[in-house]
Specification:
By secondary structure, the protein is mostly helical. It has two domains: 253 residues, no CATH class; 157 residues, no CATH class. 64% of the residues lie in helices and 0% in strands. It has 15 helices and no strands. The longest helix has 39 residues. The chain is elongated and about 75 Å long. This is PrsW family intramembrane metalloprotease. InterPro entries: PrsW. One of its GO terms (molecular function) is metallopeptidase activity.
Amino acid sequence: MATCPPYPTNPPRPHWWQRGWVRYGALTTLLAISGLVILALVREQTGTQGFLVGLGLAVLPVPLLIAAFRWLDRVEPGPWRNLVFCFAWGACAAALIAIIANSFATRWIATATADPAGADTLGATVIAPVVEESAKAAAVLLVFLFRRRDFTGIVDGVVTAGVTATGFAFTENILYLGNAFGTDQLTGDSGFASVTAATFFVRVVMSPFAHPLFTVLTGIGFGIAALSTGRHHLRRALLPLAGLLLAMGMHALWNGSAAFGEYGFLAVYGAFMVPCFGLLTWLVIWTRQRELRTVREELPAYVMAGWLAPAEPHTLASMHARRLARQYARRHAGKQAARAVAQYEAYATSLAFLRQRGRKGRAGPDFAVRERELLDALWHRRDVARPALDHAARATAPPPVAPWPGYGTPGSHAGYGYGYAAAAYAGYGYAARPGGFAPVAPYGGYGHGHPAPAAPAFTPAWVPAPLPAHARSRPAYPSAHPAHHQPLPRRP
């Protein structure tokens, strides 16, 4: 008896507005138009000379801030296109929304109340925080919704929000510094006594992190929501909103600090902004260390299945070892090999995070497909990455210690803290030898003409042997969802 397939054999084609190139084109056009409009508005307010001066001064903190957020994202680096989009959205779309909405609201309040001074204060302390933080949060929301694979936790939320706010602050600094330069031209002031110097000191030297600090609170809310399970729909909706409200409140306090008296700005800066900046910095660094611990704890399952070498979970959980591996690959096999090692590290990290989400019941319906994609990516790069990672493992390994009686017996890795018995790797291509595994061959066989480096003074017992030709077949894909707590099948 014939039966119907569980899904259509010819799925319907998406509509034209659902195609990727249409969305990319529309988004690029929107950002380009916003950039041209904001450029014209800022130049109109500051003049050509003021615009050029403001541009030259406002660009100074941008590379430092981008580098700081990129450093935070080194454990599982996201694609550059997301960062470019976030910066462009903050510098163009969010800045344009803020300028138009703030100006319209302030003028309407001034007309309604016949109090221009009060309208300016109300606009700076109430209208501006609400409008600006909402405009910046839109970029975080878009990445959260349409780039869900790249948005997996708190660090991703912090980086996305921080880069968006950096772009917004860049455009705003051009406006403020350009207007300050125009004021100095009218008054004839110059040097350290000028308004331009004072504005530069306050906005670029003292508080380049102000806007990123505000918006990072929104990013943390989205990051915690990304860690929540699908059953907690209310929590996933309320957490980003709570982060946005906190960002608005901190922004309002910062803008209203001038109303607290002569030393109100310094009081808010020293008693509130700096401690909050330190606390959030500690939170992000702690989260990054937690991510490295996740790599160390989740990847051994793939070691047991034969996808990874025994030393790789420990090596990939150390940023120092990762850097050594990339340097070794670049020195002995060129830039392409170093790029392949960096990609191997990133894919392995994504695999660890994916398995953790599955084990905790937070994985999406595409868990198996995504896991297969990551395993395929690792397998295609293994020949280039494993010698470099093996070198990094030897370079960062602690010196050998004599085992206790009855502990760390020959042929076992228990004495090195990995907990993998040598017999577990029999049949995976790692021949069990008395005293440990032989080291992987270096890059001598890749045709680059580099001599093999001298062997180290000692060989750790957990360094794997090269895969023999008959064992280079790909391991079986995991058939059990990690949430079921079933072990991964071993390679025959």
